[in-house]
Amino acid sequence: MSLEKYAHDCAILATEMWRLLTADEYADVPDALSTFGVNEWYRWRREHHKEVSVFASATPSRQKKMLLKHDREKRLLLVFASVQMGIETAELLYAVLEKCQEGLSYRNMIRAAAEARREIENRESSFWPLEGHPTFRDLKKPSQ
Question: In whole angstroms, what is the distance from residue 42 CA to residue 134 CA?
Fold first, then answer.
């Protein structure tokens, strides 16, 4: 399978993972995230990386069984993190395809790979895949 096909399939799988949630659960994802700031969310993702990656790479039937083991909030966070992982993976592969062409010298590959990474870091699409919902900044509750 080509790298482009992998990237495409990762994006599709990310979108399909939303279907694991009911409409009500999907609507509650922003509330589940409202207690997180950006740093706290990425800390949560780092702490749960193995669980998220195992979940994201499982078959849909296995994912459904895995979700049964968790309370509602954990299910929402796990699906959201998995969707983000899928989108970020697709974006990474697309950036590598665009920037890191075969035949580059190893010195130019360093520059090209750094450009691919920079491109990913500057994107916001994977940061918040809930179109029409507030961002982390908007969700963060003010201190009292």
Answer: 17
